[in-house]
Specification:
The chain is α/β, with parallel strands linked by helices.
Length: 300
C-alpha cells in the first residue's frame, strides 16, 4: 500500500528585524535565513521518517530544487514533483526582537496545479492506496473526485480552512485529521464531543482524528473512540508539531497498529518536535521516537 501526499512545497524567507515594518518605512534586517516548509512538505517528511512509503506530488518553481532535495533526503519519492516556470510558493516572514512574527504568503507554483497534472499523478496509483491532502494547493475538489473514482482512500487535513474547501465533496473522505478550530468550521459546533458526534452523523463511516492542543487527541470511528494525552516537554518551537503528528499517525496506521498505538506514537513524535527549533528539521526519525523516554503524559 502506497501513500500519495499531494501537497504544498514552500520556501520560507525569515528576516530578523527590530520591529515590524511600518507603512512607508524602509527597515534593515539583521539576518535572513531560508527554510523549506509548507504543510505538504512537512507531512511527507514526517511520513518518510516514520517509515511510510510516501510519494510527494506537487509543483515547484525555477528556484525550488532545494525543496525537491529536502523531500528526497527524507526518503520520500519525488517522481511526482514537477518544475514549472515562475516562482515556488513562498513566505516572507518578519520576526521581531520579542519573537512575534508577521507573514506574507505567495502561493506561486502551489496554486498552479492543472487538471492534466492531477490526472498524470493519480493514474500512477491504484485502488487501496491512500491519498493525503491539505488545503494549500488549488484544484482540491478535482483531486478528491479523481482519486475517489480511482478507488483511493482519501485522508483530509483541512488546514487552513477556507471557502475553497466548501466546494469539496466531504462524503468522499475516508478520514478527517483536524483540530478543534477546523472541526468547528466544518460542523458549526465547538465542543469536541459535539464535533465528533456531528461528523459521525454527517459522514457515516468516516474516521476522525481530532487534535485538542494541550488536551491531547481523540480518534473516533463507527465502533470505537480512544483518547491520548500529551507528553510533557519544554516547548521550544511548536511549528510543524501538527504535521509531525499527522505523519506519524498515518504511518503507524499503515504499519497495522491499533488506533490507540497510532495516537501514542504520534503524540510522542510531536512532543519531540516541539522540543527543538524549526519545522521540518525538528521532525524525529522513527528509531528516535521508539527509543526516547519522555516524561509522564498528561491525561485528558
Amino acid at each position: 500500500m502506497k501513500i500519495l501526499n499531494f501537497g504544498s512545497l514552500n520556501l520560507d524567507y525569515v528576516y530578523a528585524v527590530d520591529h515590524m515594518v511600518q507603512p512607508g518605512e524602509t527597515l534593515a534586517a539583521s539576518t535572513m535565513e531560508t527554510f523549506c516548509g509548507g504543510k505538504g512538505l512537512n507531512q511527507s517528511i514526517a511520513l518518510a521518517r516514520a517509515g511510510a512509503e510516501v510519494y510527494h506530488a506537487g509543483l515547484i518553481g525555477e528556484e525550488g530544487e532545494i525543496l525537491r532535495k529536502a523531500v528526497a533526503d527524507s526518503g520520500a519519492d519525488t517522481s511526482c514533483i514537477e518544475t514549472i516556470a515562475g516562482k515556488s510558493g513562498h513566505t516572507i516572514i518578519q520576526v521581531d526582537q520579542n519573537g512575534q512574527n508577521c507573514i506574507l504568503l505567495y502561493g506561486g507554483a502551489n496554486r498552479s496545479v492543472t487538471r492534466e497534472f492531477v490526472d498524470r499523478v493519480i493514474s500512477k496509483f491504484d485502488r487501496g492506496d491512500i491519498l493525503l491532502l491539505q488545503n494549500e494547493i488549488n484544484e482540491l475538489s478535482y483531486i478528491i473526485d479523481k482519486a475517489y473514482e480511482r478507488g483511493l482512500e482519501i485522508i483530509l487535513n483541512p488546514s487552513p480552512y477556507d471557502q475553497n474547501l466548501e466546494g469539496c465533496d466531504f462524503g468522499k473522505i475516508s478520514m478527517f485529521l483536524l483540530n478543534e478550530i477546523e472541526g468547528e468550521q466544518i460542523t458549526g459546533v465547538c465542543k469536541p464531543e459535539e464535533i465528533l458526534d456531528e461528523l459521525k452523523e454527517r459522514f457515516p463511516g468516516v474516521k476522525v482524528v481530532l487534535t485538542l492542543g494541550g488536551q491531547g487527541a481523540v480518534y473516533q470511528d463507527q465502533e470505537r473512540c480512544c483518547r491520548q494525552g500529551i507528553y510533557q516537554v519544554e516547548a521550544v518551537d511548536t511549528t510543524g508539531a501538527g504535521d509531525t503528528f499527522t505523519g506519524y499517525f498515518i504511518a503507524s496506521m499503515l504499519q497495522g497498529k491499533e488506533p490507540q498505538q497510532c495516537l501514542t506514537l504520534a503524540a510522542k513524535a510531536s512532543a519531540i518536535a516541539v522540543s527543538r527549533a524549526g519545522a521540518a528539521p525538528s521532525i524525529p526519525e522513527r528509531e528516535e521516537v521508539l527509543h526516547t523516554d519522555l516524561a509522564e503524559k498528561k491525561e485528558i
